[in-house]
Amino acid sequence: MPASSRTAIRTALVMATLLSACAQDRVAGPSESRSPTSLGVLANYFPSGTQGCSPGFWKNHPDVEKFWEYLPGQNLDPVFAVPPTLVDNVTLLQALSFPGGPGARGGAQILLRAAVAALLNAASPAVEFPLSQSDVIAQVNAALASGNRQTMLSLASQLDKLNNLGCPM
What we know:
mainly alpha, 6 helices, 48% helix, disordered N terminus
């Protein structure tokens, strides 16, 4: 089976699992323990990484050659499936400065701030992040597709916890 097919199947499985958990109100914020289930990630996913850099780190270090695996000026849309009603025409670097706010739009901003940092952590060869790029993208896309502020904030909290595991750079 080609790698692209395996990735598509894995992404679909991640999205289905996350949506199922959300529908059953089982998506909770991470606890201090770092077991896979307590982090709120997939129960059968065992994180190997114990590092993560915050949105502030990535925002203050947009040096493409040294730190970023994506272009800071790249739009969110090709990376994440962002409904235009929530966020429109924003770059990855701009998303790192999102202030958040009320309603689903504010929840999406909070999620995307954490999601961009998580994506950059997952993509960086210098960071041993517990999630892969495809895991981050699938979970964020599922939460955004829900349109539910609480679902988005729950995932943002989980990603924020991972983003603050400790930056090796």
